Amino acid sequence: MKRLLTVVVLVFSALAIAQSSDTVELTGLVERPAKLSLADLPRLTAETVTVSFLSGQGPEQHTYKGVRLAALLQQAGLKLENRKNDKLRKFVLATAKDGYTVIFSWAELDPEFGAQPVLLAWEEDGKPLEGERGPFRLVIPGDKRGGRYVSGVIRLEVRDADGSSQTR
Predict the structure, then answer these.
(1) HSE (CB half, 13 Å, CA atoms) of 153?
(2) 149, 143 in Cβ contact below 8 A?
(3) Which helix (H) or strand (E) holds 11?
């Protein structure tokens, strides 16, 4: 019975993920959680980058348009506790509509530390990202492999090093 319940929960979770694919949810340790649609993102400062990386299909080169992940999260406002360098304990768990997940430390994104220009992109080679690859994709200039180029991003959740996504 316990296995059946687990399977049912997984199926409903997958359906919920599939249905929410036209927005990206900002959640977790942020002051202003939000669900952003494609129409919301171009209002932020957009950047265009050309990147090369190795994928499972071989070398790829593309030009993407999007907003910096750091700027998006700064707009949402990180929830910080009064402890030394608390923001360095934070990380972002990015989830795709197929359930694929990757993480980014806040330190690698933060303009005061690593300042990695990770983009939440909506356009590839001048065309909107669609289908399984869209409408949002994370783009990581400098990564040699495309494993963190998450296609179909539906959720960006800020968590603390202890794993929590809620303030204590």
Answers:
(1) 29
(2) yes
(3) helix 2-19
The C-alpha atoms of residue 136 and residue 66 are separated, in whole angstroms, by: 9
What backbone torsions phi and psi does residue 67 show, to the nearest 5 degrees?
-115, 150
User: How wide is the angle at C-alpha 144 spanned by C-alphas 136 and 146, nearest 5°?
Assistant: 30
Residue 165 confidence (pLDDT): 75
Residue 87 tokens read as 């923001």
Looking at the DSSP bridge assignments, the partners of residue 95 are: 101, 155
The partner residues of 148 in beta bridges, in order of sequence, read none
How long is the chain? 168
% pLDDT > 70, the chain: 86
Q: Which of 96, 130, 90, 128 is nearest to 110 (CA)?
A: 90
